[in-house]
């Protein structure tokens, strides 16, 4: 699903108005009407006190349209205009006039803290104070209204975007309405998926308001949300007349004393993601652990007898090499890694200690093969690209790093974002249960296994991130968040592949 920028959303509105030969107010009527239908379908006339807070721009106009429709359908509605400016948009004024035709209870105007109404926990709050045009902190008294809404514990429905949040930047030191649900028009916003801003949103749903399809289909966006539909299109089906050699040979260089679990997890995940052959390269002491824990893999060991890998020499010609899980950063390992990079031409997936070694020896980045996949968690990313003031600068720095070294960055987080060639691929799968040791090792194995099978590195990074998160989503139905472990994620990788083409059972008609 395309994630439109602010300018692209405005352009989509204009394209719709021109294609349908309608004034902008008609589009506001449509958006507000669909939002009303969303509320009405869930309340079904229940006697809930609804408080709608409207700004004086088009988002406030949406709120007035919602209010009018609710009043017409017998709901108890109190509407408030948050008067943060004397300037009103034309469509807001049109919506206000239409509301006045339907009720004598005209909206109350809020100009200061003293005007604020009480908000009860059982109320339904509809937030239409600011839309996507906000680019600075709201006035102090308006931010106090945000805090009042947040502290009320009322169910809060934000229309399009939570008030106080900007669509294209992080506004520092600003309060934001904490929405129970964001009902966003046509497309999700990138800020929904970034740690600094996404924490204000419990859930979001897209409301299709019928923007011009020709524009939406043709516009190229910087960011895309990757869900089941997108993942289905990336999947490579297996052929009947095939064999283990058809699906590639993966080599995983991993493990050291006390960290052999990382090698076990990554090798198991590589197999469970479909690699035809997998060879594990590790320390000699790791041989019995790997042969016992993962009997399906072949094992090659460092000829030294140390607790860590001191030399990487393999008489193999694998299709891809994954390196880093549990590797350690001993000086001898760093030297072995450097020597390996100097001669290696095989595609790479790098994680964990391989990334830590790179961050301490930045010159080694120039030795990476083109389209190498790097999978840093936030701290590893910071070591690679430097610190950042906010999540947007983080993405900009990640983009510059990717361009400089011609690599694919898999920036792991609650919503993993794959960065390559100036584009962001935002993963929609995954859950908080994945915040457990070894999850990243599993991802390394998945990505390595996919590249081995012939997926191009970018597709492997995007598709593999989705499958990894989807396996965890399926697993928590059996374990809960707290009971989820990295090993369980591996066990559910097969279910994640099956789920790609599983159609939900149809509910019987009532």
TrEMBL record:
<dbReference type="GO" id="GO:0110051">
    <property type="term" value="P:metabolite repair"/>
</dbReference>
<keyword id="KW-0808">Transferase</keyword>
<feature type="domain" description="YjeF N-terminal">
    <location>
        <begin position="9"/>
        <end position="217"/>
    </location>
</feature>
<keyword id="KW-0520">NAD</keyword>
<dbReference type="GO" id="GO:0046872">
    <property type="term" value="F:metal ion binding"/>
</dbReference>
<feature type="binding site">
    <location>
        <position position="377"/>
    </location>
    <ligand>
        <name>(6S)-NADPHX</name>
    </ligand>
</feature>
<comment type="function">
    <text>Bifunctional enzyme that catalyzes the epimerization of the S- and R-forms of NAD(P)HX and the dehydration of the S-form of NAD(P)HX at the expense of ADP, which is converted to AMP. This allows the repair of both epimers of NAD(P)HX, a damaged form of NAD(P)H that is a result of enzymatic or heat-dependent hydration.</text>
</comment>
<dbReference type="Pfam" id="PF03853">
    <property type="entry name" value="YjeF_N"/>
</dbReference>
<dbReference type="InterPro" id="IPR017953">
    <property type="entry name" value="Carbohydrate_kinase_pred_CS"/>
</dbReference>
<feature type="binding site">
    <location>
        <position position="326"/>
    </location>
    <ligand>
        <name>(6S)-NADPHX</name>
    </ligand>
</feature>
<feature type="binding site">
    <location>
        <position position="262"/>
    </location>
    <ligand>
        <name>(6S)-NADPHX</name>
    </ligand>
</feature>
<feature type="binding site">
    <location>
        <position position="441"/>
    </location>
    <ligand>
        <name>(6S)-NADPHX</name>
    </ligand>
</feature>
<feature type="binding site">
    <location>
        <position position="127"/>
    </location>
    <ligand>
        <name>K(+)</name>
    </ligand>
</feature>
<keyword id="KW-0521">NADP</keyword>
<feature type="domain" description="YjeF C-terminal">
    <location>
        <begin position="227"/>
        <end position="500"/>
    </location>
</feature>
<comment type="similarity">
    <text>Belongs to the NnrD/CARKD family.</text>
</comment>
<dbReference type="InterPro" id="IPR036652">
    <property type="entry name" value="YjeF_N_dom_sf"/>
</dbReference>
<keyword id="KW-0511">Multifunctional enzyme</keyword>
<dbReference type="GO" id="GO:0005524">
    <property type="term" value="F:ATP binding"/>
</dbReference>
<comment type="function">
    <text>Catalyzes the epimerization of the S- and R-forms of NAD(P)HX, a damaged form of NAD(P)H that is a result of enzymatic or heat-dependent hydration. This is a prerequisite for the S-specific NAD(P)H-hydrate dehydratase to allow the repair of both epimers of NAD(P)HX.</text>
</comment>
<feature type="binding site">
    <location>
        <begin position="412"/>
        <end position="416"/>
    </location>
    <ligand>
        <name>AMP</name>
    </ligand>
</feature>
<dbReference type="GO" id="GO:0052856">
    <property type="term" value="F:NAD(P)HX epimerase activity"/>
</dbReference>
<dbReference type="Pfam" id="PF01256">
    <property type="entry name" value="Carb_kinase"/>
</dbReference>
<feature type="binding site">
    <location>
        <position position="440"/>
    </location>
    <ligand>
        <name>AMP</name>
    </ligand>
</feature>
<keyword id="KW-0630">Potassium</keyword>
<dbReference type="InterPro" id="IPR029056">
    <property type="entry name" value="Ribokinase-like"/>
</dbReference>
<dbReference type="GO" id="GO:0046496">
    <property type="term" value="P:nicotinamide nucleotide metabolic process"/>
</dbReference>
<feature type="binding site">
    <location>
        <position position="160"/>
    </location>
    <ligand>
        <name>(6S)-NADPHX</name>
    </ligand>
</feature>
<dbReference type="InterPro" id="IPR000631">
    <property type="entry name" value="CARKD"/>
</dbReference>
<keyword id="KW-0479">Metal-binding</keyword>
<dbReference type="InterPro" id="IPR030677">
    <property type="entry name" value="Nnr"/>
</dbReference>
<feature type="binding site">
    <location>
        <position position="59"/>
    </location>
    <ligand>
        <name>K(+)</name>
    </ligand>
</feature>
<dbReference type="InterPro" id="IPR004443">
    <property type="entry name" value="YjeF_N_dom"/>
</dbReference>
<keyword id="KW-0418">Kinase</keyword>
<comment type="subunit">
    <text>Homotetramer.</text>
</comment>
<protein>
    <recommendedName>
        <fullName>Bifunctional NAD(P)H-hydrate repair enzyme</fullName>
        <ecNumber>4.2.1.136</ecNumber>
        <ecNumber>5.1.99.6</ecNumber>
    </recommendedName>
</protein>
<keyword id="KW-0456">Lyase</keyword>
<feature type="binding site">
    <location>
        <begin position="58"/>
        <end position="62"/>
    </location>
    <ligand>
        <name>(6S)-NADPHX</name>
    </ligand>
</feature>
<feature type="binding site">
    <location>
        <position position="163"/>
    </location>
    <ligand>
        <name>K(+)</name>
    </ligand>
</feature>
<comment type="similarity">
    <text>In the N-terminal section; belongs to the NnrE/AIBP family.</text>
</comment>
<keyword id="KW-0413">Isomerase</keyword>
<feature type="binding site">
    <location>
        <begin position="131"/>
        <end position="137"/>
    </location>
    <ligand>
        <name>(6S)-NADPHX</name>
    </ligand>
</feature>
